[in-house]
Amino acid sequence: MERILDSATLQASPRRRAFLRYLVEETLAGHADRLKGYSLERAVFGHDGTFGSQSESVVRFEARRLRRDLDSYYVDAGARDPVRITIPKGQYVPHFKWHQAPTEAPPSDNTEPDPRGGTVVGAIGAAPAADEAGGAGIAGRRRGVLAGLLAVVVLAAAGGLWLWLRSPSPSGAEPVRGPAVVVLPFETLSAGEDDRFLAAGVTQELITALMRFEGFRLYSVPASFGQDARADPVTLGRNLGVGYVVKGSVSSDAATVRVAAQFYDAQTGRVIWSETYDRARTAGALLGVRAELAASIAAVLGQPYGVVNSDMAARLSGGVEPNMASYTCVLKAYTYRRTFRDELRQPVLACLEAAVERDPDYAEPWALLGWLHLDAARFGFVPEAEVPRELSQALDFASRAVAIGPENVVALRALSAVQYHLGNFNESERIQRQALALNPNDPDTLAQLGWRLAVRGRWDEGLAYSERAIERTIDPLGWYYDMTTIHLYLEGRYREMLASAEHSAAGDPTGVSLLAIAHGALGNHAAAQEALATLAKQAPAFNRDPAAVFRRFQFLESISDAYMDGLRKAGWTEPSVSTVPHGK
User: Membrane spanning segments where (predicted)?
Assistant: First the structure.
């Protein structure tokens, strides 16, 4: 603990440093059972003991930030610390695990060679939940035998995928998922003092914004600013063990501020993405500019369908198969969710089921399992009699994800979606807004909230969220456009509807049906028939009874009726029984 607190790399406020000290010292003193929200609020944060929801949120918020401080510390300065301290999500009792055996430790049968030359030993630390509930102290448990052997998993993946998924991964540490990223200090290309201020501000804001996205491990602000702005990405990849490098620059003239950003593959030095942002230079606007640009860049890189996950998915599609690791399953699930095709859903479902069995404390596979079972119910992938069972499973899996990660945005979005489809609209909205507060830059969260508000008739607010989601996405998903397309149809703006429907059609079956409606409304009968044929081929269950799907999606009856009227005018007719695939 003292090693961490003495490190200049630890990006923690004095209050969070005191928080860490209190948690560790109380645990080592055998008082782990006292680490509850109300006691921490009084002992660490100096409140008057009146504990309510606002006080509780302060403790949880500081705990979440402290976890991120520790993650950043261990990804750089603390990568080789002999003992790793973590604070599991949903609790305040810290866990302690060996990174490597102390030099005086004798050889043991419970050891395994570390591929980097160290030794992996068993974990020590916080007691099981039952012990904590009973008030048993850590001091006694420290006298126990080191808990068994920690598995060393070597993934023989082409192209060094192990580096991308796990590096650096201190042996004996908690499983680390997702690529490590370093953001280099943005370079100033002009001489103005304001530009230097803006460059430093964009760098710091970008690191903070990226940390809000699940799956990234980022070097802390001090560690990033300790690097050379012009450092070679490949050298950084080799020396720091990072998978990706972000570089950028700031320049300006009398009227314009220009921020350029690049995203590099740290294994090859390849530029994966680059963009230039021009903003008007106005008096007093630099603070707003730096926050807005950092949020825009972070959203492009970090969103579920953004640059990083797209690059990882491309590597997998190129034949890299790291033993179906849990993170790989998450990436495959996001690929499925671009189109919601049932033939893609089935193998992803099996992958995620294996992931949660292998890695039960990883929230995202549980959340995505909830999504997939929800899709089975709402898209008609299963017979009507099985829909209640699929919804029940969806709720169970999404709830499990939130229990594991109460502040995991993916988990919260999944639970919000299930609650919506169960008809619990207020609860769904509350959970979705909680997810949005955790990451205001995430396009999926924005789009889902906008979709659900619009479909219940709150058009102005809902479409505003949809537009924000589209603006923040480099390759918006088709369903982001669905409610805009429907709204244009209801207003009789058919040509504008067609332009929007062409985007919608790249997504789920609803989008394809909207394309048919748009062509039908404009008298393009051949094009409408072509879209309907695509719908029948890609989504036979949806095509058989679109009205049932709309009911499951909780559309207002007036919207559903107008939609079905448009679909019939486009030429849709209910398929005969003989054309319905068996089992659907």
Answer: 145-165
d(CA 297, CA 90): 30
Split at pLDDT 50, 70, 90, the class of 416 is very high
pLDDT tens-digit readout, 440-484 = 878 889 999 999 999 999 999 999 999 988 887 766 888 899 999
Q: How far is CA 505 from CA 476, 483, 549, in A?
A: 12, 12, 17
HSE of 152, CA atoms in CB hemisphere, 13 A: 17
Three-state secondary structure readout of 214-241: CCCEECCHHHHHCCCCCCCHHHHHHHHC
| Domain 180-304, second-level architecture | 3-Layer(aba) Sandwich (3.40)
Q: What is the CATH number of domain 324-434?
A: 1.25.40.10
pTM of the model: 0.56
Locus of tokens 């639970």: 415
Mean pLDDT lowest among 42-51, 122-131, 571-580: 122-131
C-alpha–C-alpha distance, residues 99 and 124, integer Å: 11
Identical fold between 180-304 and 441-584? no
505 DSSP assignment:
T
Strand partners, 132: none
CATH topology of domain 441-584: 1.25.40
Contact in structure between 544 and 574 (CB atoms under 8 Å): yes
9 phi and psi angles, rounded to 5 deg? -80, -25
Is 12:69 a contact under the CB 8 Å cutoff?
A: yes
Contact predicate 138/27, CB 8 Å = yes
